[in-house]
């Protein structure tokens, strides 16, 4: 981009090799990593978990935990070697010349200090000869700059009074307080909803353009890279696979690994061209979305009608502002036999709650629920209403979805033994299921902590299927996994539905995933069904502004 | 607890270098096990006891043809043998009651967390009530209500101990209950007993387990206290506590050995259990793994 200027790079990493020493011996975390960073550039570091991208980020910040050792190479910042400096020397650099933004915006801020006080503290610590009065003026200015509305009024608010996106903006403001040359941003948008992510990335780009700060953006998300990075470094197992300008990486990746990463990213199809046949059946004239839902001829396996749930407010009764908060309001969901129906929404939209109500894990105040013609009283606990046991679930985080004290074999056998089979049905075979899901049988004697994330999630799928349910609710089953693993899991889910004849409710925040899997989609917002209809209708014809904003929030690069 | 953890515990030398408490505790255990083989007299057998040799000072050679190394008590029983046999009773009572107490407490705590509502309220209020009373008082009330006997004193010690385990296990279980693997167990509609014992309990006991070694020391001391007060084990089967009590009224007359030697044995036992227990606790406690 700025190659014509040809200036000295701000940061140079030269053949860096890092080892981690533990009781078990030493492991090489980074091997022979070289890269450089120009002023005013956004450099993306992308890789899957274990690629060493965060370690590299921490090394640049001088924040490596004890046990790490540099065995070769160097990190040069502005011509000076960064490693081997003592804490006092680091103090002159960290926060002042190199600062950081982390993923968890809640943990990055002190909950007991106003954001203004935290900004002031940072400004005073990183700038000499600044009076408290000046610091305050600059703090307000920084808040304004990162797009906090009414910065003077919000200056004295506490972190919990801000939304997630605004908190991350405050964190960015604090990172800017020392007027740094480099910001290391480690997954800065991964904890945010898609629409907010887009805004934060736009802000980062704008700040880079205005202040010529350089950003090292550590991420696992090709979408984020495609949106704002100037150059990309692709990492795998501690080594640099390839590095180039972003457009080259995206359009003409040289390495097989980069190609596979790109291929694994789910893509959103917006033009109706590909599924025109299906669309043509429905779109003579302008059908309303209700018509389209009702037009599903087969009897649904699941019918949820007008479900309303309220939560008691938190805190002491006298101090509650609104005593009852509504989690779901008049939500109706219908799932066709053998179909996959998607529920999409941002955090707090109630999409997980409806899944848990349908599975019988939570009760609801009002509403009707029918499964395969039998109606259940959802105001009763699931065990009493008989709803529990009808539906199986696949959860988001496979790390906590398996009992750590039970071997894989025990977990799966339990599912077979207690599953909801009709009398006379054949018992499913654990070993056959393992084969079908591509799991080696040798895993049966292992414990969850000995498995990879992808393996654990497959075991969770096997557990759900082995109980022979008619319906499976999958709640963000791929969000905690690496992209390449994500694609495998999605494929497995799709195959399972066809082979096992189950019906699936697929809950996700990712529109592209839902589009890939689901025939019809419900879009949730603030506990209500905001938009609903066949996938084709939602993506190509829906006029709902919220649906449009969700679609627009997708990285353009991965939209066809 | 993982098998590896237990293994590591035994593989590594505990603490820094050889230590007196570990040696002492090992010796106590060994002596208690082989007591009938090495004791010169069975203090529970009236035929081996000669009443006219009561209160002999240490070193006296008795009718049986052996030396009373630590003297005899007011009934003519060999103090050394009484200590060996008393050790057995003290250890059996405290180990049994601690083990059962932990099991009962953990189950109660985990059940309170799982069932919630009134089950939780009832169990935890009993726990609160009990922990607000002095331990010795609870034990006294239990003994007075239950009557004397070794089985009763074990029961009394269980009643004293369970509450602490229940409170800790409930706290851990409450955070485990919200994890998806328990949702998955519920979705299978497993029997409640299976959910509790197979899924919830094994994942909630780790922090409470670290308490066991320390509680064991308390149990030995408490049993001794009760026996000393004459509320513990029956008079004809002296534990260390009642052995101390036996000589209590002779202390001022110069017959120091009747109380002193059992008292020293008791002191050494409790001290070694506490030192070794603290060491084990530190090793099991994940928060102090770094040592």
What does this structure look like?
The complex is a heterodimer of chains A (560) and B (291). Chain A has 560 residues and is an alpha/beta fold. Among the domains of chain A are: 103-179, no CATH class; 272-302 and 337-361 and 470-558, 3-Layer(aba) Sandwich (Rossmann fold). Chain A has a six-stranded mixed β-sheet with strand order 6-7-8-3-9-10, with helices on both faces. In chain A, strands 16-17-18-13-19-20 form a six-stranded mixed β-sheet, with helices on both faces. Chain A has a four-stranded antiparallel β-sheet with strand order 2-1-4-5, covered by helices on one side. Chain B has one domain (11-288): MetI-like (MetI-like fold). Chain B has helices spanning 3-11, 20-38, 79-115, 117-131, 135-146, 150-177, 180-187, 192-204, 206-209, 212-228, 240-248, 257-284, and strands at 60-61, 67-68. A two-stranded antiparallel sheet of chain B has the order 1-2. In chain B, helix 3 crosses helix 8 (192-204) and helix 6 (150-177) packs across helix 8 (192-204). The two termini of chain B are 19 Å apart. The chains are: A alpha/beta (560), B mainly alpha (291). Chains A and B meet through strand 16 and helix 16 of A and helix 7 and helix 8 of B. Chain B: Residues 87-277 form the ABC transmembrane type-1 domain. Chain B: One of its GO terms (biological process) is transmembrane transport. Chain B: This is Peptide ABC transporter permease. Chain B: Pfam families: BPD_transp_1. Chain B: Belongs to the binding-protein-dependent transport system permease family.
């Amino acid at each position: 981009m700025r190659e014509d200027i040809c200036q000295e790079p701000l940061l140079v990493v030269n053949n860096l090799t890092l080892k981690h020493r533990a009781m078990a011996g030493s492991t090489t975390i980074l091997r022979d990593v070289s890269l450089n960073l120009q002023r005013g550039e956004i450099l993306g570091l992308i890789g899957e978990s274990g690629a060493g991208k965060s370690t590299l980020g921490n090394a640049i910040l001088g924040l490596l935990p004890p046990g790490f050792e540099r065995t070769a190479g160097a990190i040069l910042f502005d011509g000076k070697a960064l490693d081997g400096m003592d804490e006092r020397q680091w103090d002159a650099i960290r926060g002042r010349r190199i600062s950081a933004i982390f993923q968890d915006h809640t943990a990055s801020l002190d909950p007991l200090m106003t954001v203004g006080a935290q900004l002031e503290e940072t400004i005073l610590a990183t700038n000499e000869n600044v009076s408290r009065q000046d610091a305050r003026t600059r703090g307000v200015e920084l808040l304004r700059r990162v797009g906090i509305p009414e910065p003077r009024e919000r200056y004295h608010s506490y972190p919990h009074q801000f939304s997630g996106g605004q908190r991350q903006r405050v964190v960015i403001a604090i990172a800017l307080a020392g007027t740094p040359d480099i910001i290391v941003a480690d997954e800065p948008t991964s904890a945010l909803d898609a629409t907010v992510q887009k805004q934060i990335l736009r802000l980062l780009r704008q700040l880079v353009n205005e202040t010529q700060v350089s950003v090292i953006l550590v991420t696992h998300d090709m979408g984020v890279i495609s949106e704002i990075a100037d150059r990309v470094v692709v990492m795998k197992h501690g080594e640099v696979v390839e590095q180039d300008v972003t457009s080259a990486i995206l359009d003409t990746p040289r390495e097989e690994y980069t190609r596979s990463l790109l291929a694994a990213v789910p893509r959103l199809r917006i033009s109706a061209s590909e599924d025109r046949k299906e669309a043509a059946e429905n779109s003579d004239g302008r059908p309303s979305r209700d018509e389209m839902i009702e037009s599903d001829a087969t009897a649904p396996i699941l019918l949820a009608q007008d479900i309303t749930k309220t939560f008691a407010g938190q805190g002491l009764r006298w101090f509650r502002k609104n005593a009852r908060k509504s989690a779901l309001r008049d939500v109706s969901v219908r799932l066709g036999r053998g179909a996959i129906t998607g529920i999409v929404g941002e955090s707090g939209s109630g999409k997980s709650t409806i899944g848990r109500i349908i599975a019988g894990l939570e009760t609801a105040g009002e509403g009707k629920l029918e499964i395969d013609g039998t109606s259940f009283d959802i105001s009763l606990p699931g065990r009493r209403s008989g709803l529990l046991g009808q539906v199986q679930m696949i959860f988001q985080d496979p790390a906590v979805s398996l009992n750590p004290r039970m071997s894989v074999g025990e977990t799966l056998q339990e599912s077979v033994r207690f599953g909801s089979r009709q009398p006379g049905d054949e018992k499913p075979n654990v070993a056959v299921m393992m084969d079908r899901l591509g799991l080696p049988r040798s895993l049966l004697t292992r414990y969850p902590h000995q498995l990879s994330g992808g393996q654990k999630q497959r075991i969770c799928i096997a557990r759900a299927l082995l109980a022979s349910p008619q319906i499976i609710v999958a709640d963000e089953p791929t969000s905690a996994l690496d992209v390449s693993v994500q694609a495998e899991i999605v494929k497995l889910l799709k195959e399972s539905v066809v082979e096992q004849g189950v019906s699936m409710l697929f809950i996700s925040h990712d529109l592209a995933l839902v589009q890939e899997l689901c025939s019809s989609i419900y879009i949730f917002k603030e506990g209500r069904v905001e938009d609903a209809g066949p996938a084709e209708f939602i993506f190509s014809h829906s006029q709902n502004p919220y649906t449009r904003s969700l679609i627009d929030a997708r990285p353009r690069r991965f939209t066809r | 607890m993982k098998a590896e953890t237990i293994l590591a515990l035994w593989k590594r030398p505990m603490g820094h270098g050889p230590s007196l408490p570990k040696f002492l505790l090992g010796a106590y255990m060994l002596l208690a096990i082989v007591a009938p083989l090495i004791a010169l007299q069975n203090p529970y057998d009236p035929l081996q006891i000669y009443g006219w040799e009561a209160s002999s000072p240490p070193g006296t050679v008795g009718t049986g043809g052996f030396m009373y190394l630590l003297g005899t008590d007011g009934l003519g029983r060999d103090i050394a043998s009484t200590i060996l046999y008393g050790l057995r009773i003290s250890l059996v009572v405290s180990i049994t009651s601690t083990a059962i107490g932990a099991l009962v407490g953990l189950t109660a705590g985990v059940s309170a967390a799982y069932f919630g509502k009134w089950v939780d309220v009832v169990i935890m209020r009993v726990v609160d009530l009990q922990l607000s009373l002095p331990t010795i008082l609870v034990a006294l009330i239990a003994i007075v209500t239950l009557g004397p006997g070794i089985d009763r004193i074990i029961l009394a010690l269980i009643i004293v101990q369970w509450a602490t385990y229940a409170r800790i296990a409930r706290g851990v279980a409450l955070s485990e209950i919200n994890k998806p693997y328990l949702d998955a167990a519920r979705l299978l509609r497993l029997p409640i007993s299976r959910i509790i014992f197979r899924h919830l309990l094994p994942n909630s006991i780790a922090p409470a387990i670290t308490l066991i070694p320390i509680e064991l020391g308390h149990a030995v001391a408490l049993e001794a206290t009760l026996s000393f007060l004459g509320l513990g084990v029956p008079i004809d089967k002296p534990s260390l506590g009642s052995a101390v009590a036996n000589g209590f009224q002779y202390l001022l007359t110069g017959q120091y050995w009747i109380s002193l030697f059992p008292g020293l044995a008791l002191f050494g036992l409790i001290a070694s259990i506490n030192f070794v227990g603290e060491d084990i606790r530190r090793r099991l406690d994940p928060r102090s793994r770094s040592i």
